[in-house]
Amino acid sequence: MGLLDGKVALITGGARGMGAAHVRLFLEEGAQVVFGDVLDEEGKALAEESGATYVHHDVTSLQDWGRAVTTATELHGKLDVLVNNAGILKFRRILDMSPEDFDRVIDVNLKGTWLGIKSVIEPMKAAGRGAIVNISSIEGFIGAEGLSAYSASKFGIRGVTKSAARELARFKIRVNSVHPGAISTSMAMDPEMMQEVDADTFVKSMVIKRFAKPVEVSHVVAFLASDRTSYCTGSEFTIDGGLLTGAGY
């Protein structure tokens, strides 16, 4: 038996990176998966390879959210799980960052998460229960130079998660957040950011001295989406190889 047998899941930002790892693992664990992204070519290729259903999905658009949710419920009859994975990173120091760039990061990462929660409440109520997993970051705990917008959005996801957990428990909908650290994805390897980071020093600061594979995050996400975490809500799960142990948070 799979961990997610019988579950119907909607995953955002699923065309590549961590999102694609979530899609593949959820399928392996028995879920029916609908995933969205704005990267249509990569999304369609993953759908053809995996058997999941792809929809074009801009998480800042309430209309796109409605279409994604309707696709899941019409194809599979219900919606049990939402993984709010879509996110962007813009490396700019505050002095050099435009207000438009700041707004864009907040809109995708934070408002997109909020819209997702809002959009799945009714179908999850109809299903009798649900699980929402919001992907934040260790930057939602400690912040970093050049990542003010990203950190603000990821701190914000923590607050939205906790408020939603309190609001939705009465409907048997659980809401938790996941906080990855150094994960080997194209976003984490942003060229502008990597020019500014002393990679050797960063690795030396780790407890587990390596970058994680995306699927190592996916295993925690799948666990939180499953019934095995039926008493977990409003909680924060770090997947950072111990990076925050010395951060004083």
Automatic annotation (TrEMBL):
The signal peptide annotation in the UniProt record is none
Q: Which InterPro entries match?
A: KR_dom, NAD(P)-bd_dom_sf, Sc_DH/Rdtase_CS, SDR_fam
EC category name = oxidoreductase
Q: Name one Pfam family in it.
A: adh_short_C2
- Ranges where the Ketoreductase domain occurs: 7-186
Q: What SUPFAM superfamilies does the entry give?
A: NAD(P)-binding Rossmann-fold domains
Which PROSITE patterns does the record match to this protein?
ADH_SHORT (PS00061)
Key word Oxidoreductase present? yes
What SMART domains would the database entry show? Answer: PKS_KR
Per the UniProt record, which EC number(s) apply here? 1.1.1.47
GO molecular function list: glucose 1-dehydrogenase [NAD(P)+] activity
Keywords from the UniProt entry: NAD, Oxidoreductase
Check the record and name the PANTHER family matching this protein: DEHYDROGENASES, SHORT CHAIN (PTHR24321), ESTRADIOL 17-BETA-DEHYDROGENASE 8-RELATED (PTHR24321:SF8)
Quote the NCBIfam families the UniProt record gives: PRK07231.1 (NF005559)
Family of this protein = Belongs to the short-chain dehydrogenases/reductases (SDR) family.
- Spell out the protein name for this chain: Glucose 1-dehydrogenase
